[in-house]
Amino acid sequence: MSSNLNKYWLLIIAFLLVSLVCGGIVLAVKQSSHKPVEISLSQTAPVQYEGEIYIDGAVANPGFYPLREDDTIATLIQAAGLTPDADTGKIKIYVPKTVESSRPQRIDLNRAEAWLLDALPGIGPDRAQAIVDYRNQHGPFKRIEDLLKVAGIGSSTLDKIRDLTTLED
Hints:
mainly alpha, DNA polymerase, domain 1, 3 domains, two-stranded antiparallel sheet, rod-shaped
C-alpha cells in the first residue's frame, strides 16, 4: 500500500512541477507583450498658402484680400471689418477646386461706403454719395432695381452694375 501511495505522491509532485513550469512560461510571455510601444510622428512640411481669400457675409467690406503666410482668421476678418450683427461663432471657410471659376467680387449696396461704390462703372463720387444718402434716408435697398430711385442713376447705369452688386440683409 505504501508503494501505491508513493506513486500517487510522485504523480502529484510531477503534475505540480509541470503546472509551475507552464505557468511561468505563460507569465513570461504576457510580461514581454506589455512592453511600451514607441510612436514616431514624421515631420511634414507646412502647407504654403498664397493668393487671395474672399471674405463675405457680415463684414463692412466684402471682397478679395491678399493671403500671407502669417495671416490668421482674426487678422483677415479685421481687415474686412465686422458688422455689429456678425456671428463670429460660425465662420465658414470654403476652398474651391482648381477647376472652379471664381465668382466676381460684388459690392453690397446696403453696407458699402461711398468710396467703394465709386469704384462701380458709371458711378462717380457724387452718385456714390447719393446712393449712401438715399440708403440713410429710406432704409436698406430691397431690390437692385431700387437704385433707379436714386438721382442720377438710370437704366443704362443699372445694367452696367447689376452683376457687380448684391443686397445682403
